[in-house]
């Protein structure tokens, strides 16, 4: 046992020495390095200048004098910033890695229009950066209203996320609304056919919609179809003129 302990002693000493040197180096760096500039990761909706202005980092400040939590809070107040992660490089550059919010749909409420993301956060429409997204009706589209958290929005959100993952569903729907009686209802891009998806299990229902489209619509056309009800297991119910 004593031999084993004596063999471990040099290793333990070396590890403690390395830790001690690392701590001293970090303390030296914190006290002697200054922030020389701010760089922002690539963003689409938010201009780097907006992020740098919101970060409000004084050039020349020491890292140990910089409140990173407050910096993050200021940057995340910007409409399209979901999260910000700061990192100070050894040369003094402060890098801000930004994850932006991604609009999921366009809320339409009378003349009001505003984007909404998967978290129910409303996002302004920026000039020159418009997106081709499904239109969603039945919710307050004013920018001053609260984040959407209702059961109705949750169902529509889950449907749209599955539709986007499904791809076929994403390109074949144009408008979405929630009905207390029928759940999620969408209109097809082609001919404005009413598609009833109900609640939950949207992956299966979107798969059934694709199968119906491939097997029926492509062969017989969609002109005479008014409604496709996909709420039932292993069954697609249609209404035709």
The computed structural class is alpha/beta
Instruction: State the fourth-level CATH superfamily of the largest domain.
Output: Cell division protein FtsQ/DivIB
Average per-residue pLDDT, rounded, comes to 87
* Helix and strand element order: HEHHEEEEEEHHEEEHEE
Shape assignment: elongated
**Number of beta strands:** 12
Characterize the largest beta sheet: strand count, sense, and whether it forms a barrel. 9 strands, mixed
Quaternary structure classification: single chain
Helicity, in percent? 25-40%
Q: Might you state the CATH topology name of the largest domain?
A: Rossmann fold
What does the model show?
This protein is of the alpha/beta class and 241 residues long. Helix content is 36%, strand content 27%. Helix 6 links the parallel strand 10 and strand 11 (225-229). It is elongated, with a radius of gyration of 27 Å.
Task: Describe the structure concisely.
The chain has 241 residues and is an alpha/beta fold. The chain has helices at residues 2-32, 48-55, 68-75, 151-166, 168-172, 202-220, and strands at residues 37-40, 81-88, 93-100, 103-109, 112-117, 122-123, 135-137, 173-179, 183-188, 194-198, 225-229, 237-240. It has two domains: 32-100, Ubiquitin-like (UB roll) (Roll); 103-240, Cell division protein FtsQ/DivIB (Rossmann fold), CATH 3.40.50.11690.
Features:
9-stranded mixed beta sheet, Rossmann fold, alpha/beta, 27% strand, elongated, 3-stranded mixed beta sheet, 241 residues
């Amino acid at each position: 046992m004593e031999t084993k302990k004596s063999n471990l002693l040099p290793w333990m000493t070396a590890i403690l020495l390395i830790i001690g040197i690392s701590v001293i180096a970090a303390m030296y760096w914190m006290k002697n390095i200054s922030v020389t500039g701010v760089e922002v990761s690539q963003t689409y909706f938010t201009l780097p200048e907006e992020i740098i202005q919101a970060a409000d980092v004084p050039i020349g400040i020491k890292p140990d004098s910089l409140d990173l939590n407050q910096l993050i809070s200021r940057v995340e107040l910007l409409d399209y910033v979901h999260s910000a992660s700061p990192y100070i490089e050894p040369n003094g550059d402060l890098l801000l890695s930004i994850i932006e919010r991604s609009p999921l749909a366009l809320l339409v409420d009378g003349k009001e229009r505003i984007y909404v993301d998967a978290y129910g956060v409303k996002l302004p429409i920026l000039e020159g950066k418009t997106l081709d997204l499904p239109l969603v009706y039945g919710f307050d589209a004013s920018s001053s209203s609260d984040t959407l958290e209702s059961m109705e929005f949750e169902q529509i959100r889950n449907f749209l996320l599955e539709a986007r993952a499904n791809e076929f569903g994403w390109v074949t729907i144009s408008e979405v609304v929630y009905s207390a009686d029928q759940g999620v209802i969408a209109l097809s891009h082609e001919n404005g056919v009413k598609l009833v998806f109900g609640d939950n299990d949207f992956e299966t229902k979107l798969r059934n919609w694709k199968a119906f489209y491939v097997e029926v619509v492509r062969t017989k056309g969609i002109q005479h179809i008014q409604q496709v009800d996909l709420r039932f297991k292993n069954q697609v119910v249609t209404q035709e003129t």
